[in-house]
């Protein structure tokens, strides 16, 4: 198994892309610390189902945009598991609108969760990675962070920031055997895209070279590769999973 005996932390790991990544990791032997914003029945159910794989799967409640909560939850996870090998920064939100219509809260919330949350969680675990002389960080960015998109100025900025952050961490910590890569998904069928009308989805699919929207598992497969030893000489990369959307 690719991740046998390893411990992975996944923010936003109870739904969508994060949950698909959690399943791939668990099936390949990883124990999981899943971070969610609230202690809902849905989140508990996700953890229970993942635990049926025989892995140690635990839920941690944390608002990733709050640096104090992030430090606290990182300490709790390290105390519970003893070590962390892989960090997947997946938590993200959208507040879409044209730029003049974006409120200050729309801008702040998206950047705070998507970008600052990624920075805070990475900062919280990187010292333990340095101490143990290994660590693997997979950041979930977006193809929108590479190409921009109408009505998503705040989201595009947050995801572009993740790309710059990924490259910087890769350069700062590569000599410490710590790798950091980013995945840039395109249109993936999750709760975020569920708000699109059927005709909008069909029109998007027509414009993609592969002719369809992606599935969370398409992103999860790449996350698994990046988290495992098969990608041991890859760091600082941004890899698109977008069906050819941005060629």
CATH topology group? Rossmann fold
- Count every beta strand, where a strand is a DSSP E run of 2 or more residues: 7
Side by side, the strands of the main sheet go 3-2-1-4-5-6-7
At the fourth level of CATH, the homologous superfamily is NAD(P)-binding Rossmann-like Domain
Fraction of residues in H or I helices = 40-55%
Any low-confidence stretches, pLDDT <50, length ≥5?
none
Class by SSE composition = alpha/beta
Tell me the major beta sheet. Answer: 7 strands, parallel
Radius of gyration, in Å, reads: 17 Å
Architecture (CATH level 2) name:
3-Layer(aba) Sandwich
Number of domains: 1
CATH class: Alpha Beta
The sequence of SSEs as H and E is: EHEHEHEHEHHEHHHE
What distance separates the N and C termini?
33 Å
What is the number of helical segments per DSSP (H or I, 4+ residues)? 9
The fraction of residues in strands falls at 15-25%
Determine the mean pLDDT. 96
User: What is the 3D shape?
Assistant: globular
